[in-house]
Design goal:
This protein is α+β, with helices and mostly antiparallel strands. It is built from 17 helices and 14 strands. The protein is elongated. The model is unreliable at 59-66 (pLDDT under 50).
């Protein structure tokens, strides 16, 4: 037979000998040039070439620690913004466990979920190596990138988008319902509350600077404190985001203004350390498949998703439903998304203690998301960020 004559072995034999899944073999063929030949509908490999390739590949992978059986993968997340709630669906519906059982059927890999109070806590966990994959906001991603310019051993890489909202939808200034402001200039007489050194404060300062209003009275408060102060009539204005914008509307304690003036839209991001991702490609792809499936569930079964979100966060179901309906749940990266991410410079407003960015370009790698989309039999993603505006008919 041809296979004996040319020393060929079937793909199933390679899977058995190397103890890996079919998806891993396919991925190696596409991304690492594992030599193969297709005869009819079947895939074969030259046995000697496979072993030569694997010895070389194995030496590369053994240069850094690899996750093996009976170990742990830690997923970091935060619930401070609706845009970052995707991991809650992955966790609630067991999407990642399903993928890990499929690609590592002989391993017992524990999944730990680290709930952080904010993006900075997640970044610290990733720098320390305690968190392997995390979802946080656009400003936190910029801070993470800035830190990486000072810590060469930390290389955060953007893998996929989380929840997105267009300009005017992600952020707003909330004022009491009985207060009327005609223009941004009317803010000159009001104290404005915002969270300290965050996306919200950055956007507020950027807006004020564009109107030559840099000396206003800015108060630093948590968003929960601002909500309570608005409810009690002790605050005139606060910068907020979803789900708090929807909550303020639901409880009739304030109205949102100047949404357009507060800058670009908002985007959450799935991030890993680049070296960890390279050493654990199958786990990264497994997580991104779970991420895409979570997005699909939120889009197609919003009521079911809202119930899970409400249970986890404590927000009223009506508020959660309203909030998630305002957000695009799409993992694909667009040129406009990257422009939005590169809008931020954390060193700009926060004093000399914050070093300036060496490079403003956020690092990203679409390869893993492309593989995840292929394995889920979704339309092929291009090798580069998608041009133009969001494609409403195709979402990942």
């Amino acid at each position: 037979m041809i296979k004996e004559q040319f020393n060929l072995i079937h793909i199933s034999e390679v899977m058995d000998q190397l103890d890996v899944s079919r998806s891993t073999i396919d991925r190696w063929r596409k991304t690492k040039q594992l030599p193969s030949v297709k005869i009819g509908k079947e895939i074969y490999f030259d046995k000697n070439e496979v072993m030569r390739w694997y010895r070389q590949f194995g030496q590369v992978r053994q240069s850094s620690p690899v996750l093996t059986a009976n170990q742990t993968i830690t997923i970091g997340y935060t619930t401070v913004s609706t845009h970052m709630w995707g991991p809650l669906i992955i966790k609630e519906f067991g999407f990642l466990e399903q993928e890990l059982r499929r690609i590592r059927p002989k391993d017992r890999i524990e999944i730990k979920w680290h709930k952080a109070k904010d993006g900075m806590e997640l970044i610290k966990g990733m720098i320390a190596g305690h968190i392997h994959l995390a979802t946080f906001g656009d400003y936190a991603l910029s801070v993470s990138h800035m830190i990486s310019t000072m810590l060469p051993d930390y290389r955060p890489i953007l893998l996929a988008a989380g929840g997105k909202s267009a300009k005017g939808d992600g952020f707003g200034m909330v004022i009491p319902t009985d207060l009327t402001l005609q223009s941004i200039g009317d803010l000159a007489t009001l104290p404005i509350a915002t969270t300290f050194r965050t996306n919200a404060e950055y956007r507020l300062r950027k807006m004020l600077e564009s109107h030559h209003m840099t000396d206003l009275n800015i108060i630093h408060r948590s968003i929960e404190e601002s909500m309570e102060s608005l409810r009690q009539g002790r605050l005139s204005a606060s910068i907020m985001w979803e789900p708090f914008l929807s909550l303020a509307h639901h409880q009739q304690i304030g109205k949102s203004i100047f949404n357009q003036e507060l800058g670009l839209g908002f985007i959450a991001n799935v991030v890993a350390d680049e070296r960890w991702a390279l050493d654990h490609e199958d786990l990264v792809v497994a997580y991104l498949k779970a991420h895409v499936q979570a997005n699909r569930l939120i889009r197609e079964q919003p009521h079911q998703a809202a119930k899970a979100f409400a249970l986890e966060t404590g927000f009223p179901l009506e508020v959660v439903s309203r909030s998630i309906s305002k957000i695009r749940w799409d993992a694909a990266l667009y040129d406009n998304d990257l422009k939005m991410l590169n809008y931020f410079d954390p060193s700009k407003y926060f004093g000399p203690a914050t070093p300036p960015l060496v490079s403003s370009e956020i690092r990203y790698n679409i390869k893993y998301l492309r593989i995840a989309a292929q394995e889920l039999k979704l339309p092929n993603l291009p090798a580069a960020p998608i041009d133009g505006a969001w494609q409403r008919d195709i979402q990942y």
